[in-house]
Write a structure and sequence with these properties.
It is a single chain. The protein is built from seven helices and five strands; from the N terminus they run H-E-E-H-H-E-E-E-H-H-H-H. By secondary structure, the protein is of the alpha+beta class. Strand 3 and strand 4 form a beta hairpin. Helix 4 runs antiparallel to helix 5.
């Protein structure tokens, strides 16, 4: 006190039991969150100034090839294929400035052992007190891409086989149509001419004319049927005149 040599100590007492409990609960929540993220099938990276400061198990497996291999402090661009590195660097910089959106991107990433794989990468900006953090979600789509390419190749082969089958069928139809027209049609035409010559020689014989008329009609019907089948299989005008003129 003033004017006295006595010293007086003033203090304050605060109950921090609840505060310690809150800190403990927060730490438990953080551990549960990390275990949950670590168990995700897709890779999760946290970047600060372009360097990795957190990687879950899936990310370590994809990029390091080993769950026990750390990725901390390594630049993420080291894992991007060289021909895509400059573009990805510009995009990450724009995202940190809040210019670009976190749309999924296809990147060719390279594992630490040099093995390349196609990945779908989604970046999200996480504002922090100091430097903004980037969260990267990495999904290995190399197997899906390979399946897609295999399916496209199989479809192309199927289309080629279908086209070849159509060509073979068209060749067969053309040959059958030509045989009907040139062979069967010529024989029927010759038969009709012989019948007509025979009828002229037997002119005046009413009984012969009565019996021969159905034969001539039958030959005419057969010729008409052959011509119809030949045109249905493959019109000869297609070969002689071309499609446009034939139509």
């Amino acid at each position: 006190l003033l004017g006295s040599r006595q010293r007086v100590l003033f203090g304050a007492l605060m109950d921090v039991t609840e505060l310690k409990g809150a800190d403990s609960n927060l730490a438990d929540e953080k551990r549960r969150y990390e275990r949950m993220v670590d168990g995700l099938p897709d890779g999760v990276l946290m970047l600060r100034r372009g360097c990795i400061h957190y990687a879950n198990a899936a990310a370590r497996r994809l990029l390091a090839g080993d769950l026990l291999q750390p990725l901390n402090a390594q630049p993420f661009l080291d894992f991007v294929a060289e021909h895509q590195r400059a573009r990805e660097a510009a995009r990450l910089a724009a995202l940190q400035r809040g210019v670009a959106g976190g749309q999924p991107q296809r990147l060719l990433l390279v594992c630490r052992d040099g093995r390349p794989f196609e990945a779908e990468v989604t970046e999200t900006l996480l504002p922090a007190g100091g430097d903004a953090e980037l969260q990267l979600l990495i999904r290995d789509v190399s197997q899906a891409e390979q399946l897609r390419r295999d399916l496209e190749e199989a479809n192309q082969r199927l289309q080629h086989l279908s086209q070849r089958l159509i060509e073979v069928q068209e060749i067969e139809r053309r040959e059958v149509a030509r045989d009907l027209h040139d062979d069967v049609g010529q024989h029927l035409t010759g038969l009709k001419l012989h019948l007509q010559r025979l009828i002229r020689r037997q002119a005046g014989d009413s009984e012969f004319e009565r019996l021969s008329q159905p034969l001539v009609a039958g030959v005419d019907a057969a010729l008409a049927k052959v011509r119809s089948l030949s045109l249905s299989l493959h019109p000869l005008q297609l070969d002689t005149l071309g499609l446009e003129a034939a139509v």
